[in-house]
Amino acid sequence: MHEGTCHCGAVRIKLPSTPEVATACNCSLCRRIGGPWVYFEFGTVEIQGHPDATAAYVWGDKTLRTIHCKTCGCVTHWEPLDPTPGCKHGINLGNFDPTLIASVRVRRFDGANTWTFIDP
Ligand SMILES: [Zn+2]
After folding, report:
1. Residue 100 — φ and ψ, nearest 5°?
2. DSSP tag of 49
3. Distance CA 59, CA 97 (A)
4. What pTM was estimated for this model as a whole?
């Protein structure tokens, strides 16, 4: 079981399985947040402290909200505004143990322009 927290610990996240691949995105928002992101079916990730300790940011085409801790500001995850069965949401792997972060293969995604992976 992998459990991550925001910096102050108000938001705690438990992953349902061990991620093997993560995505580093260069879009205008992700390049500021960092990441990398791992994706799970919406509802399968246990998140404590949300929404009580969190705030949301919605931008662009308004399909998802990016969630951060109201106390320490760390971005913990994003979720769809209008969830459909089987849809995914993203978890910021930066909130987890460095050994887990180091164990995943990080793929570079060009969210800024071509919307494709740009692995070397
Ligand atoms: Zn926090």
Report:
1. -70, -45
2. S
3. 29
4. 0.93
Question: How far, in Å, from the CA of 33 to the mean position of ligand 1?
Answer: 14
The helix/strand/coil state of 99 is: helix
Which of 74, 70, 69 is closest to 94 using CA atoms?
A: 74
Exposure b/e, 50-77, CB count within 10 A at least 16 = b: beebbeeeeeeeeebbbbbbebeebbbb
Q: What is the Å distance from ligand 1's center to 91 Cα? A: 15
* Å from CA of 5 to ligand 1 middle: 8
- 101: confidence class by pLDDT, cuts 50, 70, 90: very high
Whole-number Å distance, alpha carbon 115 to ligand 1 midpoint, is 31
